[in-house]
Amino acid sequence: MTVSVVVLAHNEEKYIKKCLDGLINQEEKPDEIIIVDNNCTDKTIDICKEYSVRIVQEKTQGIIAARNTGFNAAKYDIISRC
Prior knowledge:
Elements: E1 3-9, H1 16-24, E2 32-37, H2 44-48, E3 54-57, H3 63-73, E4 78-81
Parallel strand pairs: 1-2, 1-4, 2-3
């Protein structure tokens, strides 16, 4: 069983490191982590680039468009979001 985790991000500089550290340090690690950049204007994406994650962009502002972009980018059988 393979798992993709989709993380929606819009100016999450304050929280994204804790989120990614939590995902990476789980006993059962996800097979891929996808960060959906939903028009971040802070350092969120710079922080994400320090991790082994895939970053995709969604220019249409909003949770629905960002979630759909993340789900479409996922490669594996099970998709989780945070």
